[in-house]
Amino acid sequence: MSTSADSFARIAPQLEGQAIELPSWAFGNSGTRFKVFGSPGTARTVEEKVADAATVHRFTGLAPSVALHIPWDLVDDFGALRRHAEDLGVSLGTINSNTFQDDDYKLGALTHTDPKIRQKAIDHHFECLDVMDATGSRDLKIWLAEGSNYPGQADLRGRQDRLAESLATIYDRVGPEQRLVLEYKFFEPAFYHTDVPDWGTSYAQVSALGERAVVCLDTGHHAPGTNIEFVVMQLLRLGKLGSFDFNSRFYADDDLIVGAADPFQLFRILFEVIRGGGYGPANPDGTSEVAFMLDQCHNIEQKIPGQIRSVLNVQEMTARALLVDRDALLAAQEAGDVLGAHEVFMDAFSTDVRADLAAWRESRGLPAHPMRAYAGSGHQAELETTRVGGTQMSWT
Ligand code: LRH
Ligand code: MN
Ligand code: MN
After folding, report:
1. Does the keyword Iron-sulfur apply (predicted)?
2. The pLDDT value given to residue 396
3. DSSP per position, 193-254
């Protein structure tokens, strides 16, 4: 089934202004613990990663900002990096802290029993807040690699209490226009327990902090079979869904292209975002309360087209989710028409919006087919010949 011109025209205005933030680390080399494959043309500096993100935006109009990870993306002058980004037509977005690559944090960072180590981790977050002041970023995103491997190894309750205290100290420094975003993940690198394993724990922790503390939902961070759209609905209902880290998974935290493993799941998630009022600009400056971000790595495929594919997948599923006839759905639900309601839902999912989206892009001065346009642009070959010398950046 493809869209009738009428129904696409109805939803098209809502596609305007859709923004999906790209992770700087998607443009570095990455791999598994077995091998990191280098690929020609990969960014050698933070400035080149930002330039690659800007290229994705140029071809799609969908990715106006890029997230940084500190210290991976540490530079001397963040004001200059901000100007570099703006010159290329993008802005610097979320600042991600990193307490997972320092020997001192082997047994914990914000939860550590040693106050000196806790303070070191808190100071790192203060440094990230300073970076945000220079970059103009709104969100400080915290994902903690903390937990334990063996029953009895750690005092679960004591760690949760220390976490609350450390987060409160960080939150005190979060500016009035800024947010603290706490990401959860149910396993890895710790295997017995994780200190922020699920949305409930993240919700409990951020609720204790205040209004500007919210939850980040990474689609790869749940147990198999989890109904992620239910989590989306609940966090939106509670006013605490701050952002998404979008990616796909088959087995663990695979960080594959969003919408590749389970497009229907992406559709269901986006439907709940729209249904819950989390889609579209919520603030006077046009920013959305719920930030859409990618958190992916491209281990064997090319990185720039990998990111182009990803934002297009989100756009396509957003269009299909917007097409759900909500009035008909509600009527069927209230009439107890189980199969009728399901059919309304599936009709939208089954709608092929690709031709309409291509025409719509063209009408806005964008390539109808961004993947093909990038492939035919010669940009990749140019990167491969000009980015010689220096060291390609890698994920860590
Ligand atoms: C943890 C995570 C988190 C990190 C990123 C690199 O698995 O999802 O968001 O910052 O990966
Ligand atoms: Mn993530
Ligand atoms: Mn992850």
Report:
1. no
2. 63
3. EESS-SHHHHHHHHHHH-TTEEEEEETTSS-TT--HHHHHHHHHHTT-EEEEEE-B-SSSS-
Q: Is 13 helix (H, G, I), strand (E, B) or coil?
A: helix
Indicate the domain borders of the chain: 18-324+366-386
**Please, which residues bridge with residue 293 across strands?**
21, 245
Tokens 């952002």 correspond to 243
Check residue 4 and give its pLDDT: 81
Minimal-distance CA residue to ligand 1 atom 5: 295
Q: 180 in helix, strand or coil?
A: strand
Give yes or no for residue 245 CB within 6 A of ligand 1: yes
Task: Quote the pLDDT of residue 204.
Answer: 98
Entry pTM: 0.97
At 328, list the tokens.
């008909």
The answer to whether 45 and 390 are in contact (CB under 8 A) is: yes
Closest ligand 1 atom to the C-alpha of 96? 10
Question: What is residue 84's predicted lDDT score, i.e. its pLDDT?
Answer: 98
| Beta-carbon count within 10 A of 77 CB | 10
CA of 295 from ligand 1 middle (Å) equals 7
What Cα–Cα distance (Å) separates residue 376 from each residue in 61, 71, 105, 365?
Answer: 18, 35, 46, 17
Question: Going by CA atoms, what residue is nearest to atom 4 of ligand 1?
Answer: 143
- DSSP 8-class letter at 104: G
Whole-number pLDDT of residue 187: 96
Spans of the chain, pLDDT less than 70:
396
Tell whether domain 18-324+366-386 is in CATH 1.20.1250.20: no
